[in-house]
Design brief:
This protein has a domain at 5-122: Jelly Rolls. The chain is built from nine helices and eight strands. It has helices spanning 5-12, 19-28, 84-89, 110-119, 122-147, 150-160, 164-167, 170-177, 181-189; strands spanning 30-34, 39-41, 49-55, 57-63, 69-76, 80-81, 96-99, 103-109. The protein is globular, with a radius of gyration of 17 Å.
């Protein structure tokens, strides 16, 4: 499959795939496109497809009881995106996943992924590592929101995603960092 090298490289960061396994994986993942401002997931739906981003940028968020949007994930090319809890449990999601740009994705329905695990068992190890890393990331983010100053969190975000300011609106970056957009403007204006 064309453009699947990014996905295969991502797998190969944690496991080693044979050429036959790569061919099988390429037949199981299907390319999909969504336009800017379209939803990959809406609150109340079950997230049923593992989704890898080839090109583009998406955000995952929820609304609190007051209707305020809280962004929990910013995902760009080379990353997975979606509500892992809904995917694993089959329960309705509390999240939205929305594209900030036109996106090219590789998707695989959960039932096909389960079949692929049987044919390429090392993929289970890969996804276990991914889930472990996601869990660690969530804990680190929660700790960071409490113990790390906003300016340091912003600098860390820029280091992790150097082009984020060109792709993600300031309100979304502020929400992800757990600060108000006005405060982010003050941080940026101080010219770190």
């Amino acid at each position: 499959m064309q453009n699947s090298n990014l996905l295969i490289d991502n797998f190969n960061n944690h496991i080693s795939l044979t050429l036959d396994e790569i061919d099988l994986i390429n037949t199981c993942f299907k390319k999909s496109k969504i336009k800017k401002n379209e939803f990959l997931l809406k609150e109340g739906a079950v997230f049923k497809r593992a989704t890898f981003i080839l090109n583009g940028c998406l955000i995952m968020y929820f609304h609190d009881d007051n209707g305020k949007k809280h962004i929990t994930q910013i995902a760009q090319s080379g990353n997975w995106v979606g509500d892992i809890s809904s995917f694993l449990s089959g329960k309705p999601s509390a999240f939205y996943v929305e594209s900030l740009e036109d996106c090219e994705l590789l998707i695989i329905p959960k039932e096909h992924l389960e079949e692929l695990y049987l044919k390429v068992p090392k993929l289970e190890r890969y996804f276990r590592i991914l889930i472990q890393n996601a869990y660690v990331s969530v804990q680190e983010k929660a700790n960071s929101q409490i113990s790390v100053p906003a300016k340091a969190r912003y600098i860390s975000l820029l280091e992790s995603f150097p082009n984020i300011e060109n792709r993600v609106p300031q309100y979304a970056i502020a929400s992800f960092l757990g600060i108000r957009p006005e405060y982010l403007s003050r941080i940026k204006n101080k010219k770190m």
